[in-house]
Design a protein that fits this description.
The protein has 294 residues and is of the alpha/beta class. It is 47% helix and 22% strand. It is built from eleven helices and twelve strands. The strands form four sheets. A five-stranded mixed beta sheet has the order 4-3-5-12-6, sandwiched between helices. It has a three-stranded antiparallel beta sheet with strand order 10-7-11. A two-stranded antiparallel sheet has the order 1-2. Strand 8, helix 8 (197-209) and strand 9 (213-218) form a beta-alpha-beta unit. Helix 1 crosses helix 4 and helix 4 crosses helix 5. The model has no long low-confidence stretch (mean pLDDT 85).
């Protein structure tokens, strides 16, 4: 019995188009023509014997078969890329101390850092999840080699902007109903204590719009903010990264909330410039940039 082998180039076009929400964008990123990408998608449908897309308004949406293939495609491409990296990568040894925000803890730690550790088995990674102020202080005092930090901040010897993400008003379904007939009282907010760039931009936006507000719940952890918001204690401001089920993005115009700006994300690097530090920095930059494309 002959076995079909899925085309990895076609799978990469498929996954990239889903991630970028458009196959013209995927063609540009992959350096291919749109016709070549379309041919890849047609080939996958022929190989699987199932339609991968359905019309949804003016957009294309994945069918159930498309969703199934997407999960396998990601795993196949990750394994392919990891195999190439393991064979071709230099044999690195050393230690990298890496700090990051809680927003990226669930996705970046197990996936990117796990993959990096499997490729570079002799590199010891020490990861720390913390807020901006602590991460920056640890970079400045040479207790971290790399840190993924929100906002345009200074203080590290090397700062590279990763990208920008849209900040959003977030609440549960009950709080969305609350906004439809908002009582004459200050808007309840669920936020970190200062210093926090999300708190600063939320307060500034409300003040510009002349909307009264109060902080109804604070927590030192992102998990605490999500819990308070899910409990209906108020609204929080964050990006879409790591948004848990049970919470929703509240479009400002539709709910009477002021627009929020985009927030930059930067990778800060301390004085250490070893090969392991450089290698992990490049891996993190590539992975996060793919993840935050909107």
């Amino acid at each position: 019995m002959s076995r079909l082998t899925l085309d990895l180039d076609a799978l990469r076009s498929f996954v990239t188009g889903v991630d970028l929400q458009g196959y013209a964008k995927a063609a540009d990123l992959l350096g291919r023509s749109t016709s070549a990408v379309s041919a890849h998608l047609k080939k996958l449908e022929e190989q699987t014997g199932a339609p991968l897309f359905r019309k949804s308004g003016r957009q294309l949406a994945l069918t159930e078969s498309g969703q199934t293939l997407l999960g396998y495609a990601r795993r196949l491409l990750d394994l392919n890329d990891e195999a190439f990296a393991a064979v071709r990568a230099p044999q690195l040894e050393g230690r990298v101390r890496f700090g990051l925000q809680e927003d990226f803890g669930e996705s970046l730690l197990p996936h990117v850092l796990g993959q990096f550790s499997r490729v570079h088995r002799k590199v010891l990674i020490e990861a720390r999840i913390a807020r901006n102020a602590e991460l920056l202080e640890r970079v400045r005092s040479s207790r971290l080699d790399l840190a993924l930090v929100w906002g345009d901040t200074e203080g590290a010897s090397i700062v590279e902007r990763v990208g920008e993400l849209q900040t959003c008003w977030i609440g549960n379904d009950d709080m969305a109903d609350y906004l439809k007939n908002r009582p004459d009282e200050p808007l309840p907010l669920v936020l970190f204590d200062d210093p926090c760039p999300f708190q600063s931009m939320a307060v500034a936006a409300l003040q510009r719009a002349g909307i009264e507000w109060r902080i109804s719940y604070t927590s030192p952890s992102l998990a605490g903010l999500w819990a308070g918001t899910q409990a209906g204690l108020g609204f929080t401001v964050r990006t879409r990264v790591g948004l848990p089920s049970g919470l929703r993005i509240l479009e400002g115009d539709a709910h009477g909330l002021p627009p929020l700006p985009r927030l930059s994300l930067s990778l800060h690097r301390g004085d250490a410039n070893s090969e392991p530090v450089h290698a992990l920095a490049e891996t993190v930059l590539a992975s996060v940039r793919r993840a935050i494309v909107q």
